[in-house]
Amino acid sequence: MHSFRVHTGIVAPLDRANVDTDQIIPKQFLKRIERTGFGEFLFFDWRRKNGGDEDPSFVLNKPRYKGASILVAGKNFGCGSSREHAVWALADFGFRAVIAPSFADIFANNSVKNGFLTVVLSENQVNELLRRARESNGYELTVDLEQRQVRDGQGFRAGFPIDDFIRHCLLEGLDDIDLTLQHEAEIGAYEARRPIPRSLRQAF
């Protein structure tokens, strides 16, 4: 898992509340077993018209937001099903963080497991970021996990809350397997002391 410390990138404003995981990555694209390759299907039903052509009115299809790596959205982002693919699709598309007033719990948990940062700011702060991203071409934000802060070069600065353990895992790039392997020596010592059941000895 890649660590997250400080990231600066272009902001894409998705001014919608209750963005569910079936919109983030529709169910027909969940057939892959790898974590990559989902980015091209991100927000597929919003990005594409019925004929398959790109909808120029959708925010991610606008040239000014090309290469955006920070998404700002409305409350309850990531609601709906528990599919981890939603985080994979956002990351594969190029996003490193999503800023919103609130997140669905399972989506937020899946994000941590994949080194993807969810930043909670107040609705007023999010609305201000949405406005700035709409009005300024190439609008950039810096998301600083070390300082627990979001800032731009135009005077915006806001702290955000995050659990200390989650912050540690993201800063160090530790997923559940990495956390377990930190105790590899103790696990090995325990296994060496543990008697092998007779049934297993006979099998070998």
Verbal overview:
The protein has helices at 21-24, 44-47, 85-93, 105-113, 123-135, 164-172, 176-181, 184-193, 198-203; strands at 6-14, 70-73, 97-100, 117-120, 140-144, 149-151, 157-159. The protein is built from nine helices and seven strands. It has a single domain (6-174), classed as Aconitase, domain 4 (Alpha-Beta Barrel), CATH 3.20.19. It is globular and about 70 Å long. 34% of the residues lie in helices and 16% in strands. The two termini are 37 Å apart. The chain has a seven-stranded mixed beta sheet with strand order 4-3-2-1-5-6-7, sandwiched between helices.
Structure characteristics:
Aconitase, domain 4, seven-stranded mixed β-sheet, 9 helices
Number of domains: 1
What is the percent of helical residues? 25-40%
Q: Do you know the CATH topology?
A: Aconitase, domain 4
Task: Characterize the biggest β-sheet.
Answer: 7 strands, mixed
- What is the correct CATH architecture? Alpha-Beta Barrel
Order of helix and strand elements from N to C terminus? EHHEHEHEHEEEHHHH
Seen as an oligomer or otherwise, the chain set is single chain
Q: Classify the secondary structure makeup into a structural class.
A: alpha/beta
Q: Please tell me how large the radius of gyration is.
A: 20 Å
Quote the average pLDDT: 91
Number of strands: 7
- Which residues sit in consecutive blocks of at least 5 with pLDDT less than 50? none
N/C terminus separation = 37 Å
Strand content: 15-25%
The side-by-side strand order for the widest beta sheet comes to 4-3-2-1-5-6-7
CATH superfamily: Aconitase, domain 4
